[in-house]
Amino acid sequence: MLISPSLPLLLALALAPVLPLPFQGLQATDRQADPVAVCVVAPRVEAVQQGDAIGVVPTPRPVLLVVEPLLEIRIERAGRLVWRRVANSGQVITGPMAWPGLPLAPGEVVLLRLRPQQAGPGSFAHVQLIGGSAARMVQTARLMAGLAQKPAAWLQAVDAALDQGDVPLAWTLLFAPNAPLSPELQGLRNQVLNQGCGQ
Questions:
Q1: Burial class of residue 140 in the structure, from the number of CB atoms within 10 Å of its CB (0-12 exposed, 13-18 middle, 19+ buried)
Q2: Do residues 85 and 92 make contact, with C-beta atoms less than 8 angstroms apart?
Q3: Which of 26, 80, 123, 150 has a Cα-to-Cα distance from 38 of 20 to 30 A?
Q4: How far is CA 175 from CA 155, 178, 188, in A?
Q5: pTM for the whole structure
Q6: Please, what are the domains in the chain?
């Protein structure tokens, strides 16, 4: 069997503390808007004070995966809107999304604003992503390159990251667009997505 016996337990431990993140959205005018909640699966983020979430990502191009269907995604850098996607009328944004635009620089802070399907026009969940150190990003890139297209190696790397408590790396590997096609990897992705934020 490709998945080590410890992986389901490690997955359970990695998923257990993840809760839906209630966010108090702010409109462009900084007036209070209705609070909204989203479950960000990838990249891995944690709730912080003021109802926001934050995550340090070990790759310059993280995959974005949110459980809830979204109506709008905004990316802000240094307080400026640099990318925006709005769902077409009658449609929603779902599934994993490749990182758009310029990659994250080491230490860079980027603000994601996510508006889920039932939220009003000014209500967004706020997620701060911080680029990992340059050494961390290089290490992650080398690891992924060394795994090549070997599903067993990817599974072992996810297992090792979880064993070390490095959930951000585990999810980066698991949802990487260059990961090989594999029923085992897809089953693991489905398990993580179905678990969501523990609801």
A1: buried
A2: no
A3: 80
A4: 12, 9, 10
A5: 0.79
A6: 7-13+134-194 (no CATH), 19-131 (2.60.40)
